[in-house]
Amino acid sequence: MLDERKLAVLRAVVEDFVNTNEPVGSKALAERHPLGVSPATIRNDMVALEEDGYITQPHTSAGRVPTDKGYRLFVDRLSSVKPLSAAERRAIESFLTGAVDLDEIVTRTVRLLAQLTHQVAIVQYPSLTRSSVQHVELVPLGGPRLMMVVITDTGRVEQRVIDGLGDISESAVDDLRSMLNRATAGRFLNDVPRVVGDLPAQVDPEHRDMAVAVLSVLLESLVERHEEKIVLAGTANLAAVDFAASLRDILEALEENMVLIRLLGEAKDPSMLTVRIGAENFHEGLRSTSVVSADYGVGNQSLAKIGVVGPTRMDYPGTMGAVRAVARYVGQILAGQ
Amino acid sequence: MLDERKLAVLRAVVEDFVNTNEPVGSKALAERHPLGVSPATIRNDMVALEEDGYITQPHTSAGRVPTDKGYRLFVDRLSSVKPLSAAERRAIESFLTGAVDLDEIVTRTVRLLAQLTHQVAIVQYPSLTRSSVQHVELVPLGGPRLMMVVITDTGRVEQRVIDGLGDISESAVDDLRSMLNRATAGRFLNDVPRVVGDLPAQVDPEHRDMAVAVLSVLLESLVERHEEKIVLAGTANLAAVDFAASLRDILEALEENMVLIRLLGEAKDPSMLTVRIGAENFHEGLRSTSVVSADYGVGNQSLAKIGVVGPTRMDYPGTMGAVRAVARYVGQILAGQ
DNA sequence: AATTGGCACTGTGGACCACGGAGTGCCAGG
DNA sequence: CCTGGCACTCCGTGGTCCACAGTGCCAATT
Predict the structure, then answer these.
(1) Chain A CB contacts of B106 below 8 Å
(2) Are A13 and A79 in contact (CB under 8 A)?
C-alpha cells in the first residue's frame, strides 16, 4: 500500500508543514526535498496518502496538511528522536546543578524544559507511592495540637497538623515517634498501612487515643489522599501558536490537576517516551494538542513523569529529544542528592 | 473644572464601556443613564473630559473610551467597593473551610479568587520575614547529611539538606537541636540572625564545625534567600479578553516570580486595597492590565498579599469587593488554624 | 451662561466584486 | 509507472461603495 516514496512524501509534508505552518503543495515539495520525481508524481502519491487518511486538504486547491494519523505514522516510523546539541546539553547541566532542595530541582526542571522546547512543560513531583519513609517527626505545637512531618527518600516533605488530641505528654510523643520510625523507616509508603496496623496495641493505653489519631492522619494524608504534586511552566508559549481549539479551553484544561495527571499517566509503555497526538488525548480541549511524556527516576526505579504539551503541529523529534534528555538529567541529579 | 455632571458622565462612560467593551457615544449614554440632559450637552462635557485626558476616542466619529487617568479618577472618587452578595460570601466560606494544611488553604484561596473575579488571581504565602519560629528539627539522613526542617507559626515548613558534615554524632545533633530551639522558638525570623550569633561558641569544640554549617544554612535559606512563594490561578480567564498588548507578553510577565512579587509588593498604603491601573504598572507587558491587591493577615499582623490581574477595562468595584472579602476570610481561617 | 436641536462631516466596517495565484485532478504520451 | 500539459477551483487580496454611528459646531432657546 505505502511504498518507500509515499512514506518519504509524508515525511516531507510533515516536516515542511511544521516549519511553515502552511499547507504544502506538490511543487514546493519537489523543490525542497530530493525525492527525485516530478510534482505530478508527488500529486499521485498525495492522493493515495489522502485516501488512506494520512493527510488532508483544508479546501480544494490548497496544499496538504498532515492528519493526526499522519503524525502518528511519522512519529512511529518516519522519524527518530533527535539528540540534543552539545550546547543544549551543557545548558541543561548548568541549569540543574546547584539546586539546593527538591522544590528547586523541580522548578528549575520545568522551566528548563519549557525553554528548550518552546512549549508548555509539566513536571510531576516524585510520586509518594514510590518513595520510602526516611523519617517521621512529631512536633508538639502547644495545646492539643501536634505537627507530623514525614520525610521521604526522594526529598519530599509532607506535613500535617493534628488537632484535638487532649493533653499531650512529651514522653508519650517521644515514644510514639521512635515507635513510628522503627516501624516505617525505609518502607515504601505503600507498605506503611500494613506495618503500622498493630502499633496502637503496643502503646500504653493511656495514650492510645493519640496514637490512633496520629496514625489515621498519617495513613489518610500519605496513602489515601496522596495528591500528586505537579508544576507547569511556559504557558506563554501557547500564545505564540494559533490553535484550532480556543486558547481558553487549553489553558483551562491545563489548570486542572486531574487532567495533567491523566495526561502524564496514560503512558502505554512506562519508562519510554510516550506521544499522544491530537484526538488521542482524552480531553476535549486538548484535541488540537500533542503530549510528549517520559518517566524519570533513579536507576531502574521510576519516580514520576515529565512532559510537554504543544500543538499537534510540533517538532516531534526535537521535543522528544529534549524530554528524554531532561528526564535523564533529573534522574541523575536526584540520585546525587 | 469638573462639575458634578461631568463626573457623572465619566462614571457612566466607564460603566458602559466595562459592560459592552465598545466605545460609548453620547446618544447611548443619554438613553441608558438618567443624566437629565440631551446628547448634545453630553458631547460638550465629553469634549471637556477629553481635554483633561480622562477619556479618548479611538478615532474620529467613534465613541469615547476611558483612559488610565479616567479609570484612576473613577476608582478614587466615583465608585465604592461593592460588597459581595450573601451567596458569594457563603461560597467563600464553604470553599475555604475544611482545608487541612497551609498548602491547601493557599491553593483553594487562589482558585476561589480567580473564580469570583473571572480574572487571574495571585496569592502569596505568608511571608517568612513576618513569621516566627515554632520549631526547628534536625534529622540525620545517614552519612554526612542532615535535614533541617523549620516550622513557622503560620504553618509554613521549610526544609533543607545540609551535606558534607563528616561524622554525625546522634548526641551532638540532639544538643544542637535543643540549643537551636531554645534560642529561636517564638522569635521572628528577622531576629534569628541576632539570637543565634553566639551559639557556636557554646558548642563543644569537637562539633563546632557542624553547628556552624547548620547555622549558615539556616540563615542563608530563611533570611537571606527567603524566596517568597507565590501561586497563580485563572490564567484561562485572560484568553477571554482581547488585549491591546499581546497575550504572550502578559503570560510571560506572570510567569516571572519577581514580577509577581513586585506587582503585589508595591502597595502605597499597606493594609488597604491597592489598585494599579495600566501604565501605573512598572512592567512593559502589563501596560494594558490593572492589578487589585490587598494584605491579609491575622489580627493587626499583616502576613502577605493577595491580588488579581485583569484588563484595565475591569469591574473595579466588584473586583475590589472580592479581593477584600477573600483577604479577610483567609485571615480568619489562618487565625483559626 | 448653559442647554438644545439641527446639520454637515468623517472614519469604520461590511458587502460586493474582480482578479491573480497556488494547487489540484486528469489525461495522453513517453 | 512517470511526466508534462491543461483546465478548473477556490482562496486571499485589494478596490470601491455605502450605511452607520458618532462627532463638532452653530444658531436658537431658556
Answers:
(1) none
(2) no
